[in-house]
Amino acid sequence: MTNASRLRDSTQIVLPWEAIDGLESRLNEEFVVTIFDESEEYCRIIGSPVEIKEVSEFLARQGVRVQ
After folding, report:
1. pLDDT digits (tens, 9 = 90+) for 52-64
2. pTM of the model
3. Mean confidence (pLDDT) of the chain
4. 19: burial class by Cβ within 10 Å (0-12, 13-18, 19+)?
5. Are 47 and 31 spatial neighbours (Cβ–Cβ below 8 Å)?
6. Where are the beta strands (DSSP E) in the chain?
7. Rounded to 5 degrees, what are φ and ψ at 40?
8. CA–CA separation, 36 and 40 (whole Å)
């Protein structure tokens, strides 16, 4: 059985807003994700596990560290 934290980690990325500065429009254009305003400092990128994996790879190519 899949535990909740593992499922949550595969469907979202939480980053500081500054990490995606200038990339937000590309994320919305190229991927089926929702960028949620978590706070003034952080955003939450939510999508299917497949989309989140692709977004993680895209961000890594842009020099954004995703854990």
Report:
1. 999 999 999 999 9
2. 0.82
3. 88
4. middle
5. yes
6. 12-16, 33-37, 42-47
7. -65, -25
8. 11
